[in-house]
Amino acid sequence: MPLTLLVLIPAKPGQGDALGEALKGLVAPTRAEAGNISYDAHRSNDNPDLFMMYETWESQAALDSHFQQPHMQAAMARLPELVEGELKLQGFTKIS
Questions:
Q1: How many angstroms separate the CA atoms of 15 and 2, rounded?
Q2: Beta-carbon contacts of residue 61 (< 8 Å; ≥ 6 apart)
Q3: What is the end-to-end Cα distance of the chain in Å, rounded?
Q4: Of 64, 76, 21, 71, nearest to 43 (Cα)?
Q5: E-only strand ranges, 1-96
Q6: How many Cα atoms within 13 Å fall on the side-chain side of residue 62?
Q7: How much is the pTM?
């Protein structure tokens, strides 16, 4: 059963553009991963320092594999310099 994630990512003050570029850089390699159904980066209309990733995976195993990919490991290593606080990650299962 597919798994959908909604991830809210707050940028540190002054790091919104850099975080946005880093997130956009994840889109193409992630969409090429086995098990990825969709992967999109969004920027808040109300707060330019708030981002949201909307992603759908074929399974938990595909999502787990995603976090082990080199592009994700590199992005995770940059989070402390770009992100304020913690990511808010919510998982959802489609019901209709």
A1: 33
A2: 35
A3: 12
A4: 21
A5: 3-10, 36-43, 50-57, 88-93
A6: 20
A7: 0.91
**To the nearest 5 percent, what fractions of the chain are helix, strand and coil?**
40, 35, 30
pLDDT of residue 32: 98
Short-list 41, 35, 38, CA closest to 75: 41
Using a 10 angstrom Cβ sphere, with 0-12 exposed, 13-18 middle and 19 or more buried, the burial of residue 10 is: buried
Residue 24 phi, psi (nearest 5): -60, -35
Q: State the pairing for strand pair 3-10/36-43.
A: unpaired
Measured CA angle at 69 (ends 67, 74), to 5 deg:
90
Taken as a whole, the chain contains a residue count of 96
**Average pLDDT, consecutive stretches of 10 residues, N- to C-terminus, the chain (96 residues):** 95 96 97 98 97 97 96 94 95 90
* Structure token digits, residue 46: 């109300």
